[in-house]
Specification:
The protein has 204 residues and is an alpha+beta fold. Helix content is 13%, strand content 30%. The chain has one domain: Jelly Rolls (Sandwich). A hairpin with a 4-residue loop joins strand 1 and strand 2. Bound molecules: succinic acid (SIN) and fe (ii) ion. The site of fe (ii) ion has 3 residues, from loops.
Length: 204
């Protein structure tokens, strides 16, 4: 059953069944042939432990020279990003916004102890649009707090097929991934976890 709380955080465990997950993984890997994973670097010059790519008209990128931003092309190949799979557009229409489609889908691959430190998603133009997150593969120990970095946090396990939504006040809640439980799923060829986050980066 989906869980919603007053903050606007929604958790939809097992929203996607195994066959849908398998089809989605195939689509993501085919997108990654056109837009290969690369290792992003923070504005501070630190290599992130996740490997990234994007799908959609825009992609979220970071490097030391340009910082956090959205752009229409892959930072290495300079090619446009591949399209967002229809199943994700449908999921966004169902859970996030029926009128305005997402214009960016970040692909994060967690392998070999990759994690993501506590942060806010704040590079998008209009925070009224939520961030929709789809977990595939190994289970993540996800942490979510409040609008201030110092707010109390709680930990939620995100398993393959789980979907969550950062909407309302929770749109700007600090969140991150403490660790990934290696080998907890057989979904991803080569192992690990893929997280897909759908966003609306530009104004509607
Ligand atoms: C993110 O915040 O970009 C990723 C969250 C996750 O991997 O679940
Ligand atoms: Fe995030």
């Amino acid at each position: 059953m989906a869980m919603q709380n007053a903050s606007g955080f929604e958790f939809h465990p097992a929203r996607l069944g195994r066959e849908t997950q398998e089809a989605l993984v195939r689509q993501v890997f085919s997108a990654l042939e056109a837009a290969p994973l690369y290792r992003p670097v923070t504005p501070g010059g630190k290599a992130m432990s996740v490997q990234m790519s994007n799908m959609g008209p825009l992609g979220w990128v970071t490097d030391q020279a340009g910082g956090y931003r959205y752009q229409a092309t892959h930072p290495v190949s300079a090619e446009p990003w591949p399209v967002i799979p229809q199943v994700l557009l449908d999921l966004w229409a169902d859970l996030a916004d029926a009128k305005t489609p997402p214009d960016a889908c970040l692909v994060n691959l967690y392998r070999d102890g990759a994690r993501m430190s506590l942060h806010q998603d704040r590079d998008e133009a209009d925070m009224r649009f939520p961030v929709l997150s789809v977990s595939l593969g190994d289970t993540a120990v996800f942490r979510i707090g409040g609008a201030s970095r110092s707010d109390r946090t709680r930990s939620i396990k995100l398993a393959s097929g789980d979907v969550c939504l950062l909407a309302g006040d929770a749109r700007l809640f600090f969140h991150g991934v403490d660790r990934v439980l290696q080998g907890s799923s057989t979904l991803i060829p080569g192992g690990g976890r893929i997280n897909l986050t759908l966003r609306r980066a530009r104004p509607a």
